[in-house]
Amino acid sequence: MVTLVELLKSRRSIRDFQDKAVPLKIVEEVLQECTLAPSASDGQPCMFSIINCKNTMRALSDESKANLLDDFAKNKTTLNPAYAEVLKDKNFNVFYNAPCLIYIIGSKNVGSLDWDCALAACYIMLSAIERGLGTCWVHLGSYIRNPQTKALLGIPDGCRIVAPIIIGYPKEIPAASERHAPKILKVIS
Amino acid sequence: MVTLVELLKSRRSIRDFQDKAVPLKIVEEVLQECTLAPSASDGQPCMFSIINCKNTMRALSDESKANLLDDFAKNKTTLNPAYAEVLKDKNFNVFYNAPCLIYIIGSKNVGSLDWDCALAACYIMLSAIERGLGTCWVHLGSYIRNPQTKALLGIPDGCRIVAPIIIGYPKEIPAASERHAPKILKVIS
Questions:
Q1: Sequence-ordered list of residues with C-beta below 8 angstroms from that of A62, at least 6 positions apart, any chain
Q2: Partner-chain contact B114 A119, CB within 8 Å
Q3: pTM (2 decimals)?
Q4: Number of domains in chain A
Q5: What does the pLDDT look like over B133-186, one tens digit per residue?
Q6: Cα gap A71→A93, rounded to integer Å
Q7: CATH number of domain containing A111
Q8: Which of residues 53-82 of B touch A (CB under 8 A)?
Q9: What ipTM does the predicted assembly reach?
Q10: Which domain does A38 fall in, by range?
């Protein structure tokens, strides 16, 4: 019997995938399960775009890198200098070699959007394990703002990408990163 | 054998609890497990305060309600008018009758803090189930800003509360709210 803790422990961020497509039906099942995640006032604000095409993912990676580097050059964002160098490498694909990408999207008017989408992302990352899939939340892939690209992805006006989640069959399961003990600031009892 | 999906399905937001304390050791186990949650660049920025005392929780509820109503009166925040009326009720405890509260806290300098804390919250909510516990993320309890209270909770300068999670033994498990099908905006394959 697999316990919940074993499942939580078995989740890894996966950045190296088998050359094997993820059937759309499986992605849809994962998204169906992530609707079980809680959301503020049960608002269920998350929307999704599924990109099951490596060429499109490559173009999205290029656009996201270019926009982020542009923000960085204009001091609109901070960026670890090591990351900036990596992003300038034309061969670097922020989505690695993943076969599939899910964008979690929502309305800018929803105050709890970041939390709601992160909870849905958590459910996606756990549901994927059950199906032998691996995932990684790739924030670097969220800098999409060209109107044509947003239209291609079906992103409605007034909405934004919160979480880009890559998904695929892992080549191998890496060791877990070391976790420090929980930082408990105070216990009041 | 309990599958992950069954576990995800069994999670509910719990707002009515047995009059039974949660042993601190159990809370610490849950927090230990939530360190397994992913975080941006493996930054592991979450910190925790545990309030295992109903009187202190009552005082925190009163302060949070007062601050939120003050923000609302000064047009610093929007609030569902129905909520505003409920908050004005002196008998209303935003933490319901829960015996225990975990504040998830982090530095304002961490750009990914809301996502990181929401992922930790998700792990807490799932780990709790394994131990027969129920939880609810109570955003209304996060409006703590009096310096004395922040000191009492051990909140360091430059840090903020992201997620107040109540935790306890459920009186009953309510039915799940109805979920709509995942809103899939586009499939590109």
A1: none
A2: no
A3: 0.96
A4: 1
A5: 999 999 999 999 999 999 999 999 999 999 999 999 999 999 989 999 999 999
A6: 19
A7: 3.40.109.10
A8: 53, 56, 78, 80
A9: 0.96
A10: 10-53+95-168
